[in-house]
Amino acid sequence: MKTKWKKLLGSVLALALLLGVLLPGGKAEAAQETLLNTYGSLFGYSGTCINLSQLRDANTLAHVKTHYNSITLENEMKPDAMLGYSPKLITKEAAANAGYYVPSSCTETYLPAINFDTLDEVLRICYENGLSVRAHTLVWHSQTPDWFFRVGYSKDYGYVSAAQMDIRMEYYIKSVMNHVYTSKYGKIVYAWDVVNEYLHADNSGWQAIYGNVTTSPAFVKRAFQYAHDCISYFGLTDSVSLFYNDYNTYMEVDDVIRMIQYINSDKKLCDGVGMQSHLGTTFPSVEYYTTALQSFVNAGLEVQITELDVVNKGNTDQANYMYDLMTNILRIKKNGGNITGITHWGISDDVTWIKGEKPLLFSTLGVAKDAYYRVLAAYKDAGFGIGGGTGTQPTLQNGWYYIKNVHSQKYLQTAGNAGGDSVNVEIGTGSGAAGQKWYVTNLGDGYITLKNGFGYMLDVQYGANEDGTNIQTYSANGADAQKFKLMGTSNAGAYGIVTKVSSDGKGLDVYNWGSSDGVNVCQWTYYGEENQMWIFEPCNN
């Protein structure tokens, strides 16, 4: 009887999540919110850990798309999965012909093949379903086959020299990254864990060749240089971030910062730290964790919370810890902390990597726990609304306005001060021209239209719901592509402008935080920072 009752209750909870049915404890309101339209909108990325078989499952994929816009493969991008447990060697010429990056200094006749089959399918599924990818991981002391470090790629021989290993490392890093970014789906990969857990490395080929762990490891710096070479080659240095990822970072804050400073001593190669957050309600305390996060922010590092789960003494214990944790993370974000993503390490408790524990927000697929609702409550209590804004939805009177970007202090305008269909929208120095004047019309349902001085509407090109979609002007047609919503921000008097075609999840964004005349304005996941904030200055037409 207890088993049947639990199954029935799980079904009721799942249905309530979908329909917003009133549940005890006031959860109807939370049912209207998701991790995606709250944390995903504010931080840029709401993520989960997954594998290919889960992505192939339609129910799991639908759940993922409801709550997340980012995935991290649990194991299938780690070196042993890509290289194999035993080597498949191909000639250097065959590797080059297959599109691998072969360093000019490479003298080996044979090189290991890299299996991209799983990765290619994952990229395709994610691309087709609007999901981005955190690439995890390139250099790791664990789950890298020992043969990769040996002479002749054979376990029967000794380790190669450091100089030879540098060439192999460059071959592997650049071949994997080049394969991704030459793919039609590669643009969805926005971050790489270039080096994973180096400060905890022990008894691996990396240490056998390069020596004991220090805070100034030359080969780690070279790994970041190779990765940076790749994103620089593809023109992605402003849109792809490179991370050092590690666990227990709250215990080794100074060492992490010191090592990243060493990596960046000549030029910036490492953008920041991935804080693996395998936490417990008994340790670390929320305050201890928060102090570390604040230290990384104060050091000028980009931070992504990469592997979040919380072992606990029960549902209430987990829920209270998660509320306090997210409250503190949100406070640091609200105060300007460069935190750009939160990844929960698994879909639900029944598939967690921590056997016998219940560390996640869902017990089974789609069945939310108390911790889930408390995480959403923390978001609301911090003053944020759906779409990442703060407070209630603001309104403006119908009328003419100049629209100034907070970061660049430049104005929303049509290129060349032109009127017409498919005219590009950009930022420019204030001139009072017709292409910089916009008439706000409230539609009565929370949305507005914006018509410029030439009589053409602000428009999301093709009505697409993708990051990077161009913003243009077009003749009025009443489509959702011409409907926008204002979002309150932490900057008094400034608004976010989110798009209806993205269900308020994406907003007008000055590309790459540009501030020069002519920088393009596009649609991008809304996170409410200054390059997505706009001040409406009343004017006459």
Brief summary of the model shown:
This protein is of the alpha/beta class and 541 residues long. Helix content is 31%, strand content 23%. The protein has an 8-stranded parallel barrel, surrounded by 6 helices. Strands 18-17-14-25 form a 4-stranded antiparallel sheet, with no helix packed on it.
Features:
541 residues, alpha/beta, 15 helices, 31% helix, disordered N terminus
Report on this model:
There is one protein chain. Helices cover 31% and strands 23% of the residues. It has 541 residues and is α/β, with parallel strands linked by helices. The protein has an 8-stranded parallel barrel, surrounded by 6 helices. Strands 18-17-14-25 form a 4-stranded antiparallel beta sheet, with no helix packed on it. It has a 4-stranded antiparallel beta sheet with strand order 15-16-20-19, with no helix packed on it. A hairpin with an 8-residue loop joins strand 15 and strand 16 (423-428). Helix 9 (162-181) packs parallel to helix 11. The radius of gyration is 25 Å and the shape is globular. The termini are far apart.
